[in-house]
Amino acid sequence: MSILFQWLRSRPGSDAQPQQEQLWAIPVPSDIRQAVRKLMLTGDQVRAVSTLREAIPALSLVQAKLLTDRLAEQDDHPTSYAEVVRELRTRDPELDAQLWSLVEKKAETEIVRLLRERLGVDLRVANEIAEFMQESV
Hints:
By secondary structure, this protein is an all-alpha fold. Helices cover 73% and strands 0% of the residues.
């Protein structure tokens, strides 16, 4: 697995650092988080990555590898988009204020654009966050 991971990291356009930074915005259900942590504790990283990718199909292999590492090390990863939005409030209050202003204006496209631009998340995650924010008003 590590040879594959090194190859994936060395490919053009597959820089792991930006992907690592955006992982906090991808919620992982608590049962999946627990299963991944358990597998990582037993040293079964391949099954941990596989479990995570089955639960969240949109994850790339690199993202799943990075996220399994994160889940093994940290116990405070968001389990829902509600937690992601609360975390955003703490991480970037200015962005949070801009987003809620756009929510009031029902500017979903602008919300998605701003999330992608400022957080570096992919379209699917940005859409999910935007939909959650609009539904919670």
